[in-house]
Amino acid sequence: MAKKNKMKPRELREAQKKARQLKAVEINNNAVPEIAAMPAAEVIAPVAEKKKSSVKAAGMKSILVSENKMYITSFGKGNSAVLEYEVDNNDYNKTQLSSKNSSNIELRGVNEVNITFSSKHGFESGVEINTSNPTHRSGESSPVRWDMLGLKSELEKRFFGKTFDDNIHIQLIYNILDIEKILAVYVTNIVYALNNMLGIKGSESYDDFMGYLSARNTYEVFTHPDKSSLSDDKKANVRKSLSKFNVLLKTKRLGYFGLEEPKTKDTRVSQAYKKRVYHMLAIVGQIRQSVFHDKSNELDEYLYSFIDIIDSEYRDTLDYLVDERFDSINKGFVQGNKVNISLLIDMMKGYEADDIIRLYYDFIVLKSQKNLGFSIKKLREKMLEEYGYRFKDKQYDSVRSKMYKLMDFLLFCNYYRNDVVAGEALVRKLRFSMTDDEKEGIYADEAAKLWGKFRNDFENIADHMNGDVIKELGKADMDFDEKILDSEKKNASDLLYFSKMIYMLTYFLDGKEINDLLTTLISKFDNIKEFLKIMKSSAVDVECELTAGYKLFNDSQRITNELFIVKNIASMRKPAASAKLTMFRDALTILGIDDKITDDRISEILKLKEKGKGIHGLRNFITNNVIESSRFVYLIKYANAQKIREVAENEKVVMFVLGGIPDTQIERYYKSCVEFPDMNSPLEAKRSELARMIKNIRFDDFKNVKQQAKGRENVAKERAKAVIGLYLTVMYLLVKNLVNVNARYVIAIHCLERDFGLYKEIIPELASKNLKNDYRILSQTLCELCDKSPNLFLKKNERLRKCVEVDINNADSSMTRKYRNCIAHLTVVRELKEYIGDIRTVDSYFSIYHYVMQRCITKREDDIKQEEKIKYEDDLLKNHGYTKDFVKALNSPFGYNIPRFKNLSIEQLFDRNEYLTEK
To answer: I need a surface site. Which of 233, 422, 621, 793 has the fewest CB within 10 A?
Structure first.
């Protein structure tokens, strides 16, 4: 009998985690992290994964400490906090602050170590649950636990002007810092994408022209710097940026972001467009400066105030962008939706027609259904899955989207107007659920209740879903005035400029990025709003006057509401029509045509200048399956079409990415891409065949595809579509995951810049230091201070401190400065093609990232001979894989924060949930 490998505790936890992930793939084919192969004997039987702690599930939201008092809150409606109890930290006497109707938890007891409570609703109602008393963990004279970085007081002074003996202010501050982290990531990516768009005919501009754009300069100064009062150095930088700006406009690549120069002979209109584009790029550049460098002493560069201080022409541009979007939504809303509105008026007998129109505007434009706290879509899916078999019939395929939209609207009205109490009860049940399985069960139970109520309405909707009825309704006149919606319609004046600025950023993001950014911002502003409410309450009543640069957060409630609107109106913009030739060039290049092909040859191949029926099949095929693919657009934003094609020829890399795609999805790809599929072949053989197809993909494979095809020709067309879809998906996953890995290091750089400014205020040895001269200086100084260091990570752990010192000594200032710049400019993504072919084993995105990064760091600049080799260079070239000690040396600037340093330096600790797979 083979001896069973004994697993260490960490390995066991990893095995359990991976087993759960594998099970999730089997159940719902969701995206999961890349999973390494495991021996069958090591896989632990999966159990339902807990998504939250029992404390949260039972309704406790937070435990706040202020001097000798402790305040316990529960979850109220939405994200609101209900103040439940005040506890004296000296004798643990408790005072209930909540009313009988609003109370969600019952406090059973408090002692030095534990807090015991029970839930009044839902999760294990009445069962006692224990959680730790936060004051017990401090071990300090203060009842508030000290922070490990030793920066609590400095952060409080920066945000509130003074220090506090509580943990309330610092929690509010951490939410603001989280906002800055996510903005640092997205603005860094936007700046890189815009710089990358300067690539012309195979070359790429490595210059960061965005770095010299400043919102301090008006458009007049930008276009005529020599007439300004700028210094000679700044004039030179502005001239350089202006030259690059004009090149960027000529490339037409801004069309990928939906930005299109008007076709007009009126130079004023054209100049107005260029002025708006400049403002947008300058604001992006200014945000980047604010989040990537410590600007706390310069009010006009505060992230939250600069937009209100700079020249008004920038705010005019933000107004224009927001009003343009609202106008496109509002104009002719009733006429544009008259078919659906007519159907609803006919069915919803208990509603006035005007009221239905207002509700439908709320549903379509403001999307209030997304703020209910549960998914209307999931409820409808559960209803149809269990009871609505007839609605899945193929006869509804052409009208399915319309049919589902009407069904969802009826469910929305039910919870939004008719049965608000039922909606709140559903939210409470979902909050008390511990696992995804429990949530699915709750949705199934609610769907069962709804089916009896809405079955007839759903069947009525389905009966109207035929072409003749829809056509007649489309022709009919509606007697409703658009003025009905005047009180509902939004415009730019309804939003603060911070919210408009966030909307402007969405121009440069795709749908997933917009959702991630806005969801995070909404959550953080909502949390800040709740902290301010608690601080101002009569029970807690602590000072909460924010300093000048952070006054914006006094309007957190308003901004939360505004960002909901921004999230609902923002969307990935369709590529501009004027950029089509540029896009066709990129599309043909990514499919294998030499990117040196002339514009005339592109027009000839795709018959762009010819007119006639049935001759544009290839053009339409390329448009539909490449140019209009969000994955193609993402690849062009972050990469280079020619280099993507060359990377795809690396079968080893492609096999690695395919290994992260769920088996069931691989089966589907294999069946749809391979002309004569052997479905009984092993999965590895199927992946290998798909990798071979991607490696050998050529434009000639598609040039004879007919758009209006029948029979065998249609089968060939569908197969070609599947192959292109697979190819773009695989390359998208590769690039996107590397961008995600880089984001972790962007956040680390952002935090380093911020923390250095804070430590300078309390450590005299740093007062005269400049981080740019040596990015190791903060970690190095804190290590040297030892017992005198305010940093408890290094002060209390001599062994780890010595490890960090070794890593610091293994690096040098030049190496870490180059590392920082490579992170800031996503050099790994740009240089991927140059080095990825040299990797011996491709087994994780972490290893790809650090191998390419280390090759970039050791690269000779401009072929100048270096007298001394960079340490680890020989190991890197010999082993054809990244060097672990080199990673730690490069990350030594982050050594002052031990957990972050370890998570970023040790592959096994790096969060693999950052990785994407195909859904």
So the answer is: 233
> Contact at 8 Å (CB) between 70 and 87?
yes
Size (the chain), residues? 919
Alpha-carbon span 35 to 20, nearest angstrom: 11
Chain-centre distance for alpha carbon 241: 29
Give the helix ranges, DSSP H, for 224-311.
232-251, 267-292, 306-309
- The reported pLDDT for the residue numbered 392 is 82
Q: For residue range 443-458, list pLDDT tens digits in order.
A: 999 999 999 999 999 9
Comparing CA positions, the residue from 729, 719, 709 lying closest to residue 674 is 719
Q: Are 581 and 668 in contact (CB under 8 A)?
A: no
What DSSP element (H or E) covers 410?
helix 400-413
Count of other CB atoms within 10 angstroms of residue 229: 7
Q: Is 96 helix (H, G, I), strand (E, B) or coil?
A: strand
Whose CA is closest to 199, among 831, 636, 724? Answer: 636
Per-residue pLDDT averaged across 741-761, rounded? 95
Rounded (to 5) percent helix, strand, coil in the chain: 65, 5, 30
Count Cα neighbours of 144 within 13 Å in the Cβ-side half-sphere. 21
Residue 279: what pLDDT? Answer: 96
Residue 730 is inside which H or E element, if any? helix 711-760
β-pair partners for 66:
69, 166
Query: Using N-to-C axis directions, what is the helix angle for 641-648 and 630-638, rounded to 10°?
Result: 100
115 φ, ψ (degrees, to nearest 5): -120, 125
The residues near 246 (Cβ < 8 Å, ≥ 6 apart) are none
Nearest CA among 575, 572, 573, 570 for reference residue 365: 570
The letter for the amino acid at 667 is E
Per-residue pLDDT reduced to its tens digit, 656-704: 999 999 999 999 999 999 999 999 999 999 999 999 999 999 998 888 8
Tokens of 6: 């004994």
What are 528's two structure tokens? Answer: 């800040």
- Amino acid identity, position 759: Y
At residue 205, does pLDDT exceed 80? Answer: no
Determine phi and psi for 131, rounding to 5 degrees: -140, 160
Q: Looking at residue 610, what is its pLDDT?
A: 86
Q: Rounded to whole angstroms, what are the CA distances from 57 to 99, 203, 614? A: 21, 54, 61
> Which residue type is seen at 250?
K
| 711 vs 717: CA distance, rounded Å | 10
Would you give the distance in Å from CA 601 to the centre of its chain? 39
For the CA atoms of the chain, what is the radius of gyration?
30
The HSE-up count of residue 315 (CA atoms within 13 Å, CB side) is 14
pLDDT at 251 over 80: yes
Calculate helix-pair angle for 497-505, 511-536, nearest 10 degrees: 160
**Residue 29: left if φ>0, alpha if ψ -120 to 50, beta else—which one?**
left
Q: Residue 109 belongs to what H/E stretch?
A: strand 105-110
How far from each other are the two terminal CA atoms of the chain, in whole angstroms?
40
Token pair belonging to 532: 């301010």
Angstrom CA distances, 118 to 108, 122, 154, stand at 7, 10, 37
- Identify the CA nearest to 528 among candidates 187, 170, 287, 288: 170
| Closest alpha carbon to 617 in 684, 542, 539, 710 | 710
Angle at alpha carbon of residue 184, lines to 497 and 78, rounded to 5° = 65
The DSSP call for residue 79 is: T
Six token digits for residue 671: 């069946």
> Alpha helices, DSSP H only, in 570-680?
580-590, 599-606, 617-622, 630-638, 641-648, 651-659, 663-673
Does pTM surpass 0.85? yes
Contact 454, 410 (CB under 8 A): yes
CA separation, residue 587 to residues 362, 580, 618, 654 (Å)? 39, 10, 12, 20
pLDDT digits (tens, 9 = 90+) for 479-538: 666 677 777 778 888 999 999 999 999 999 998 999 999 999 999 999 999 999 999 999
